[in-house]
């Protein structure tokens, strides 16, 4: 009696690895192609949208003279490449955009540029004010210590002058402290009061050799003025 060769009966149902890979590629290939096509179409659509809005912005801000010149050149190129219909459509669309939405879009772009410019100027002004405040923080202690030392010396030698210098110092501090606490933009009037008190102190220290005269129109005292700039000019 003949016998069948022994072996795993399940091996007869398994295909070769090459056959399985081919079947897997056959199943995944057609499904992946639509995904790639959709992705490509999506990128093309994004590019068209970007190009359209770029064309829209250009038409909005370009002058009529430049638009007419470009339209004329477009007609010439359309005649060379034999695509007059596309050229006419673009030219008509350009004129419609220019008439209907050009002014509004140009105003929006101008407003955006003005906003950016204002933000830049505000940042520069803030940096300048910070530098002036740092300078003020360095100058005021030095000035204060020198004035107190002068008052201490005058108390022993000339009490009336010491009293005048003390009153001027009090006035100076009354003008300076609110500005430092409030953190608001200083005005020209505040800086004038500060400098007037400073000049009074210097006049007492110089024994009357300095006779300051301050004359500022009332209408200018409310104007915003950088801190310490006027005093720096007075000191020099």
Quickly list its features:
rod-shaped, 236 residues, mainly alpha, 78% helix
Textual characterization of the structure:
This protein has seven helices and no strands. With 236 residues, the chain is an all-alpha fold. It has a domain at 129-235. Helix 1 (17-61) packs across helix 4 (102-157), helix 4 (102-157) packs antiparallel against helix 5 (159-182) and helix 5 (159-182) runs antiparallel to helix 6 (188-205). The model is unreliable at 7-17 (pLDDT under 50).
What is this structure's SSE topology?
Blueprint: H1 17-61, H2 64-81, H3 84-100, H4 102-157, H5 159-182, H6 188-205, H7 229-235
Distance between the termini: 128 Å
The number of helices is 7
Report the C-alpha radius of gyration, rounded.
Answer: 41 Å
Overall strand count: 0
Describe the main β-sheet briefly.
Answer: none
Q: What sort of overall outline do the alpha carbons produce when their principal axes are compared? A: rod-shaped
Provide mean pLDDT, rounded: 75
Order of helices and strands, N to C? HHHHHHH
Kindly state the percentage of residues in helix: over 70%
Q: Beta-sheet strand percentage?
A: under 5%
Class by alpha and beta content: mainly alpha
Low-confidence parts: 7-17
């Amino acid at each position: 009696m003949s016998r069948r060769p022994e072996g795993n009966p399940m091996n007869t149902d398994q295909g070769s690895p090459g056959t399985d890979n081919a079947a897997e590629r056959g199943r995944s290939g057609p499904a992946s192609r639509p995904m790639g096509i959709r992705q490509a179409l999506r990128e093309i659509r994004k590019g068209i949208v970007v190009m359209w809005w770029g064309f829209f912005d250009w038409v909005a801000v370009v002058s009529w003279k430049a638009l007419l010149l470009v339209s004329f050149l477009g007609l010439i190129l359309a005649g060379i490449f034999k695509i007059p219909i596309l050229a006419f459509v673009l030219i008509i669309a350009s004129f419609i955009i220019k008439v209907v939405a050009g002014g509004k879009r140009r105003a929006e772009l101008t407003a955006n540029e003005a906003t950016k410019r204002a933000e830049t100027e505000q940042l520069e002004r803030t940096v300048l004010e910070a530098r002036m405040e740092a300078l003020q923080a360095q100058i005021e202690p030095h000035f204060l210590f020198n004035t107190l030392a002068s008052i201490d010396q005058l108390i022993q030698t000339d009490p009336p002058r010491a009293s005048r210098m003390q009153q001027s110092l009090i006035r100076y501090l009354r003008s300076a402290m609110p500005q430092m606490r409030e953190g608001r933009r200083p005005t020209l009037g505040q800086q004038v009061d500060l400098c007037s008190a400073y000049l009074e102190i210097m006049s007492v220290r110089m024994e009357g050799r300095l006779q300051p005269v301050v004359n500022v129109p009332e209408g200018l005292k409310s104007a915003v003025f950088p801190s310490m700039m006027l005093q720096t000019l007075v000191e020099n």
